[in-house]
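Colleagues,

Please find the record for the two-part complex below.
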Amino acid sequence: MTNPEIARIFERLATLLELDEANPFRVRAYREAARVVASEGRPLEAKVDEEGALEALPGIGKDLAQKIRDIVHTGTTDMYEQVRKKFPPGLIELTEVQGLGPKRVRTLWKTLDIKSRAELEKAAKAELLRQLPGFGEKLEQKILKTLEHAPPELGRMLLGGAWAVATEIAERLQRVRGVEKVELAGSFRRRRESIGDLDVLVQCHDSEPVMKAFTSHESVADVLGMGETKSSVKLRNGLQVDVRVVPAESFGAALLYFTGSKAHNIELRRIAIEKGWSLNEYGLTKGEKTIAGRTEEEVYRALGMAWIPPELREAGDEIERAIAGTLPRLVELEDLRADLHMHTDRSDGRDTLEAMVRSVRDRGYTYCAITEHSKSLAMTFGFDGARVRQSVDEIAAVRRQVPGIEVLHGLEVDILADGALDLDDDALALLDWVVISLHSRLDQPADVMTARVLEAIEHPAACVMGHPTARLIGTRAPAQMDMGRVLARAAELGVAMEINAQPDRTDLSDVNARLAKANGCAMTISTDAHGVSQLDFMRYGVFAARRAGLEKADILNTLPFERFRKAIRKGATPVRPTKPASDGRKPVRGSGAPAAKAKTKPAKSRAARKR
DNA sequence: GCCGTTTTCGGCCCGACTGTTTTCAGTCG
């Protein structure tokens, strides 16, 4: 049982309890538990036998700890099975339809025996819903529309997919006359890997022109609601956008409130209450008197803590650290000096080697690594040993063509099904930078996959593991492996872990990156760009790192080139010839290292010997 | 169901909007 699976049971249990009209605070306890379990980096499976380990998690007491143990051991827990029997299975799904909550779903079921989306749609078309207490014609229409236009699989949107339209809407509103400030809040501002909707805050005196400009925007498919302070629309791409108009004196409180997370807000409110104050989206108040509200900084300061970067606002330990003054200084996009995972048209990229290097340099980076695929990915024109040897000259040529940037000769080498690397050792020895990645046989059972990855990182040539779990968000589940063991061994060996910045990967995820740091594992952030335009994806990798609480020092490619060379795995590949290359450039690895390094090269791994 | 210098009971965040209602329940965030 993985953490997400346990969390899902708690989440469903919470909904079932709501349908059962249970104490709302009990419901909340299960919701909270689901959230805590889902964001816990270490598998709870490993903790069940450790006394008090589960109870140490916030919001997990004796009862929930026992339920976690039951779920890990038997796949379920008695109470879940009992409550589940009380309701038809489709009811949970019905509570996800917009406008329907537990109360109305219960009414639908008790009076009209509606148990599924199909039955709901049929009843709505027959105009049966409008006759029920608490329902009406408008709600019936709204439900019909939701069922027809929003199939359940269209839930959240990737941050990368929402970025362009979100920033476009913000810019458009900024240009409306009288608008003083526009901020994109919500999970977008917290830089979650996917967002459910978009929250936009506007500071201005007159809301009418703002609401008009917003709801008449050409990307709007449907206006869901329009009030004086709030309007909601559905865009053609399915994204729901809410705009709120806020006065200057409470803009900070509103930004804080609508940025969330909900759990973070609840925590802050609790602290306000402890001080005898009240915090809402209008400000921090004591009775009639406003204490703070104009800026977020002001509110946090009044509550006795430092301003917390939005990426950390998930009710982990950020509030505690903000009070103690020990918040991390999160890594920033500007800290990065290199992109260490890029493809060109020599394998499956779209742009030429020269265009890629030039473009990286023009973005202000001072070094980079070119990393084509290896031969087992035949459809990507992956490189074999001979092609790598040919590539040596191509890289030397591009170094001459594009001055002002160091170019590492790298490769993204496939990890084969048994953990061996997809390139012979002589060819590996020609490379400055070896990314090892999983691309196939991703469905292996966890123990096999763990052994495979451990085998691969033992290979002395491996510098970094690319997109470690190979997940594609919403499309492909992460490869199952014992991440704790992999990270611990990687840390010992000096193999770094990549935070792949492709928006549908962001792999390591924030949760795993946090775990990597806890294990002392070095990390890189790279784009895996297959074309010049994708070099801009770097921001999504930085977001994941920031959400994991990572600082500049945690990321290898923030180092200046000379220090980077010394920091990466040493003695790994056999050294390159010490004779300077014909262009007078020093070889990237080898000449700077003591000769003894080559001799003390670790014994080849089993995988290497087999080849 | 959790939690605790207000501790083993009795609290637990709170406002806007909608659609229904004719003063407010339900939902949402």
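The CA atoms of residues 149 and 238 of chain A lie 9 Å apart.

Comments are welcome before we finalize the supplementary table.
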